[in-house]
Recover the amino acids of this structure.
């Protein structure tokens, strides 16, 4: 079901992003640099999660939904470009391709990220009368993802506690994922009840944390070719990770616990709203499960 949903809607999200950049980026090299990272692909988890959430509550997907989903992916892509810069994680590979600054130079990579970020807000403003601009800025900015990136940098060469590590990831990774879920709900539910909001927040938080735990696990169990980015980077940079704090088996257990929380939250929403169909969102959980032998 999720594969079919993705096959139908993600090409539309791609088109929205490409057309907006093509129409609005007036400097040719800047346009090429922005599109280079957009075209690099990726799982598109964030826009897909937003659209799937809205669909789960019975919404018909329109251009406005696609626009906000595309804007969310543009914010995520900007963050990857900047993360890979020598001043940050200093990486040469992203999504199986040379990083933006390796192709276009550091200055142009910075500007490509800037262009994607600002274009994302412009695109969001064109949908739903700008209703979701402020929440997106909050999730992406100094209260959310950027704050998490700061904590991540400051945590290098330190031994973070488990609570400190969770705070890093709840901001750096989790903020945009929570935006995807909360915005998908807001797009679809006219009178959102506190219980529905509470359980969808639990789903979003647990999914976001599980997403990062799994990423930490794969960083030490998969190859660079399998990941599409440099494997073992966390160890090289001496970062605190879930396997480092809990051991590999402990990290896998923590992953399972967060996924179970997410599943229970969806079951609660199903009991609260007879129109809610959680199958798409359950498949997101299944995507993060570590299979036997992995």
């Amino acid at each position: 079901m999720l594969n079919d949903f993705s096959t139908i809607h993600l090409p539309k999200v791609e088109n929205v992003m490409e057309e907006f950049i093509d129409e609005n980026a007036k400097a040719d090299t800047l346009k090429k640099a922005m599109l280079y990272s957009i075209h690099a692909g990726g799982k598109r988890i964030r826009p897909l999660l937003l659209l799937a959430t809205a669909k789960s509550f019975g919404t018909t997907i329109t251009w406005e939904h696609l626009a906000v989903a595309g804007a969310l992916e543009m914010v995520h892509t900007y963050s990857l470009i900047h993360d890979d810069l020598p001043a940050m994680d200093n990486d040469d590979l992203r999504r199986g391709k040379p990083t933006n600054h390796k192709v276009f130079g550091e200055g142009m990579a910075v500007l490509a990220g800037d262009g994607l970020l600002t274009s994302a807000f412009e695109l969001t403003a064109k949908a739903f009368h700008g209703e979701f601009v402020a929440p997106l800025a909050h999730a992406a900015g100094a209260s959310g993802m950027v704050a998490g990136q700061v904590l991540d940098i400051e945590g290098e060469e330190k031994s973070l506690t488990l609570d400190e590590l969770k705070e890093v990831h709840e901001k750096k990774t989790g903020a945009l994922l929570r935006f995807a879920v909360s915005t998908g709900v807001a797009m679809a539910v006219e009178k959102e009840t506190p219980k529905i909001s509470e359980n969808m927040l639990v789903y979003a938080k647990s999914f976001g944390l599980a997403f990062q735990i799994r990423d930490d696990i794969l960083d030490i169990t998969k190859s660079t070719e399998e990941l599409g980015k440099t494997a073992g980077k966390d160890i090289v940079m001496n970062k605190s990770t879930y396997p480092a704090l809990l051991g590999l088996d402990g990290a896998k257990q923590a992953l399972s616990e967060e996924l179970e929380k997410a599943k229970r939250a969806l079951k609660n929403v199903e009991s609260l709203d007879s129109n809610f169909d959680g199958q798409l969102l359950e498949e997101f959980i299944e995507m993060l499960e570590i299979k036997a032998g992995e």
Notes: The mean pLDDT is 93. The first strand starts at residue 93 and ends at 94. The chain has 15 helices and two strands.
